[in-house]
Amino acid sequence: MIKKVADTSELGILVRQNIRLARRSATRQLGPIAIDRLRDLTMTFGFSLSLGDVQYLDSGWYITHAGLLRLSRRRRCVGMRVQQVFQLCDPGMGRWVFKATVYTSPRSKGFVGFGDADPSNVSSLVHGAEMRVAETRAVNRALRKAYGIGLCSVEELGWSPRPSNPDRSSQNAPATNGNNGHQNGQPRLRDRLCLLIRQHQLDAGLVKAYAADYCGTPTLRDASRNQVEAFINDLSERAVKDRDGLICLLNSYSKSQEVAP
């Protein structure tokens, strides 16, 4: 009984620390719902904001991989098994799928979670590390199931989180042409194009030259988002229906590259 009271007292201290830190680090005052949610997460799972167990992104709380691992240690998790799902993987496309099983007790039958990653559903900051992202996502999902956490983890997000409370200057900033931007959490056009090039083993330099000619712009970067999206759709259709013809078309741009200053 004494130990339980002590634990409750420690949680109370942690709650106050988390709320104080959240209010101090937020660019704008957090609303009562966000504060109540943080209090509930702290009391239920013992998450620490200062240790990076949770993050406030896009007006919501997200758990982190580190926070899940610390929770599993506190709850005395007895083991974890991670396996690659070979039949669903495609290394050439950078697509990886893993299965993770978490055992919370010696008699546990295991809580299973799957994680997948490819260039289209990971941030451009981690391109080339899709295999590790997929493994982490699988572990996170299994741990969330094992301990009843309905909160999505940061590593499971398929996009780069935006600031929780952007200032007015960023809100009023004009939209870019968009060939490198992404909207509503959708994959960026550049990511889609890179995936298409890798999937059909195309020459990236020739594709860019063809894209600029297709869009009628000096370079691909000068094209609008609608132009780039139309080009990607056309390129995808050509690659599927007549890849040999597409290769011949792309090779015709190699000469223009050779004479270019």
Outline:
With 261 residues, the protein is mainly α. The protein contains 9 helices and 5 strands.
Q: Main attributes?
A:
49% helix; two-stranded antiparallel sheet; mainly alpha; 261 residues
Could you please describe the fold and organization of this structure?
This protein has 261 residues and is mainly alpha-helical. It folds into two domains: 155 residues, Double Stranded RNA Binding Domain (2-Layer Sandwich), CATH 3.30.160; 71 residues, no CATH class. The chain is built from nine helices and five strands. The strands form two sheets. Strands 3-4-5 form a three-stranded antiparallel β-sheet. Strands 1-2 form a two-stranded antiparallel ribbon. The protein is elongated, with a radius of gyration of 24 Å. The N terminus is likely disordered.
Order of helices and strands: HHEEHEEEHHHHHH
Biggest β-sheet description: 3 strands, antiparallel
* Gyration radius from CA atoms, angstroms: 24 Å
CATH class placement of the largest domain:
Alpha Beta
What is the helix tally? 9
Strand content: 5-15%
| Spans where pLDDT lies below 50 across 5 or more residues | 1-6, 163-186
In total, the number of strands is 5
Corresponding CATH architecture of the largest domain: 2-Layer Sandwich
Classify the secondary structure makeup into a structural class: mainly alpha
Q: First CA to last CA: what distance?
A: 81 Å
Question: What's the shape?
Answer: elongated
Helix content: 40-55%
